[in-house]
Write a structure and sequence with these properties.
Layout: E1 9-12, H1 20-31, H2 40-47, E2 66-71, E3 77-84, E4 97-103, H3 112-127, E5 133-137, H4 141-146, E6 150-157, E7 160-167
Antiparallel strand pairs: 1-2, 2-3, 3-4, 5-7, 6-7
Helix pairs in contact: 1-2
């Protein structure tokens, strides 16, 4: 597989809503400890917000969350990235966020996460007009720095040390 152009197609989950339960299961398994009290059914319900289409005209202060899914050559989901209004409940003044960047373990180190992040940033900047966005990561700071993200601080989130970063 080419490291610069992985063999994946990135889609908006609105185009494949049947993937939400699958993706919700991945996210729950990976990050339940950062969302205490949120059971899998609640996560599935919350992720349904990605299916809502904004009815506001472009250029307003509205924000429509987006979830992107990477599909492999056999059209199977292998990874995700999201654009959310909020991601850390202890950082309510920061918005919007790149969130839920995840690739199935057997598909890692193939450039898929890079493709997902670049795709999400391009949509955020070019289509949504976002000037600055944030993310937090427990252990992938160097990865995001290579993609142009800037570290702003290290802090604790639900007892886990995380790096807060931004892109502009």
């Amino acid at each position: 597989m080419n490291m610069n152009k992985p063999d994946v197609k990135i889609i908006d989950v609105c185009d494949a809503p049947k993937l939400i339960p699958i993706v919700a299961h991945w996210h729950h398994a990976e990050w339940a400890h950062l969302n205490p009290g949120q059971a899998l059914p609640a996560r599935i319900k919350k992720m349904s917000a990605y299916l809502k289409v904004s009815t506001n005209a472009q250029g307003t202060d509205s924000f429509t969350p987006k979830l992107f899914v990477a599909l492999n050559g056999e059209a199977l989901p292998v990874g995700t990235a999201a654009l959310d209004l909020h991601d850390m409940d202890n950082q309510p003044m920061l918005s919007p966020w790149l969130a839920s960047v995840f690739v199935l373990p057997e598909y890692r180190q193939q450039g898929i996460a890079t493709a997902l992040v670049k795709y999400a940033v391009k949509v955020a900047v070019d289509e949504m007009g976002i000037k600055r966005m944030h993310l937090f990561t427990p252990n992938h700071r160097p990865f995001y720095e290579r993609l142009g993200w800037v570290h702003s601080q290290r802090l604790s989130y639900y007892g886990e040390p995380v790096d807060l970063m931004y892109y502009q």
